[in-house]
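Objective 1b: paired records.
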Amino acid sequence: MKLTVKVVGLLTLMIILIMIPAVIATWQNQRNSITEQARIRALTIYQMIVVTRQWVAENRDRIEPVPAQATKELSQYADYMADFKFHISSNILVNEENAPDSFEIRAIDALNNGAEEYSEIYNIPDMGDVYRFAASLTINKSCMPCHAGQGYKIDDFRGLISVIIPLADLEESIKKGNRTLIFTVFTGLAGIIIIVCLLLYKLVLYPIGMLTDAVGKIRRGNYNVKTEIKTNDEIQELSEAFDTMSAQIAENEDTLKAKLDEAVKKYIDLVGELEEKNAQLDSLNQLKTDFLDSVAHEIRTPLTKIMSYTELLNDPRLADDTASRAKFADSLKRNVTSMTGMFNDIITMRRLEYDQHPYHRIPVALKEMITVILDNFERESTEKQLKIEINIDENLIALVDGESFGYAMSNIISNAVKYSEKNGKIVIKAAKTDDKIIMSCWDEGVGIPQEDLAHVFKRFHRGSNVKREYPGTGLGLAIVDRVINAHEGKMEIFSEEGKYTEVRLTL
């Protein structure tokens, strides 16, 4: 127990120290950078417009349009010649085309209250996410020929210029930042794996090697052996017990010769047990590696979405936007459900591997069970417009463990729905033959490559054709295989990539 606590404690500490600061720093830098770039572009465009208006005003005797007309025509040119847009507006209108929109109304209020500039980030249909910037226009000497008759004086607030900067091109910088984040994450994981290996060697493998060497010396008749391992855990206790035994054997060699063979046999058994535990630790280490690789990949996307939607829900500007908040909350629920399903698969796999699930067989109506399971996938099947057929007699009863068998069938149907193409077909059927029940779930989805068919029951293994496009942990079929084996049944998979997949169960 001491060794387990030590390894788990150190591993947890390393994850916190390596991962959290790197992720937070990288993400914060991305958001600050894209906002600042958009602001600089918008401010530059604003300054160019102001310079243009000033030049037109000061050279009104040589050119025809007045500053307002020149600004309007420049705005029209920008609509189809540039990726940005701008608009001149005021709370005291001369031209109705310059009427302020909702953003400009808020900006005018802020600028009138002393702000030097005003900006917001939000979504515009057909443009996506944009950065909206506004700064004021004030009356100067060159403006007076046109505006003196309207009651304005120099330095009076005349209106504003608002600039719209699309964020699509700037979001590329976020992707670059994400590559940095991914590199940081995997570097951290590599560091963790190396540290775990070093800890296992230092705390387990090396002391066991010392004990093995000591056992070898005793086999050769050298009883004056001392290991003196100082690890402050169970291995040290074993070492101390070993040293005590060897000392007693040395002191009582003459009287204990008759029992020497038995003692050596016990030591050999002990070494075998230690080697077996060592092999289990190696297997556990590999399982941790597979787990970290798979979970790190699968958890990143829902966590990123949860973080983004949580921030949006906390945005005071959306406090009254009930529709958006409901949409964000629904997205949060779906991502949390995805993560919950992943961790449920991991917990279920552990229970099955360590025989911690009690099987209680009861009579189950198969058609009713399948119908209830399909209700859980109604949303996904409706979105894909799937045609689902159930060919099972209502009176067909199977003697199974309801919980585990239902979980297995849910995994099989979940895969069929997930990997089916739009407007596809799924056929679920079952029939009794002699003293056996044969069930199958057939879909015309993406299929499984032939080279992957022999490995689909292994933990964390996923088909090469679905790793990037479809989320998953690679535990579903491994769980199903263990459940069916526990029912003394057989599971077979037939598939052709790009055409169909059939999962067949014989109970």
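Objective 1b, second protein:
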Amino acid sequence: MSDSKQHEALQVRLQHEFADPRLLALALTHRSFGSPHNERLEFLGDSVLNLAVSGMLYRALHDQPEGDLSRVRASLVKQDTLHKLATGLGLVGLVRLGEGEMRSGGQHRPSILADALEAVIGAVYLDAGYDTASSLVLRLFDKVDLSPSMTAAAKDPKTELQEWLQARRWQLPVYRVVGTTGAAHQQTFDVECEVTELKQSQRGIGSSRRSGEQAAALAMLQWLKEHPQ
């Protein structure tokens, strides 16, 4: 299928027909393909996404404090969530990539797809304004059950472990990278999480240092559940 046909089909899924189709083409152009590319649209779309999700949560979780709303928002706009939404929207195979990025599997890379989704949101904003872009965001998240119970589930492992330790007036955990594997653009990080008072450490693997730390914190939380203090 030609790019124009694919873009037409995507606009049907977006429920938005672009007045300026060049914006959609730009949103689907990764910087490895050349310039101009979608990074400026991604920057814009990130802000639109956060504002739209903030408004959605403010209305849906009206009894929740700011901290809980922030945690839920972070969970909804993180890369993993956006990658799933981008895949569901059919962005896989639509992003224009350079030959090297294409050969290395870039069309399926979560970061590229998540960024492309933000760029598409930014493109819709420029093409038709905030209300239209916000409506797109709401449709993307329309199957998410926004309930007060989400605030607990939205706590990432590092936050949950930190709060558990602070409640006992213990030191914060220490994270250290104990090993890395893979090429520079696609490394895997082996991270250790140590709790001093317990003289205990657990390890986790992730595609970034941050995700490795989260995996290590989760392993520590699971250890704590198996060894009640």
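The chain has two domains: 3-151, 157-226. The radius of gyration is 20 Å.
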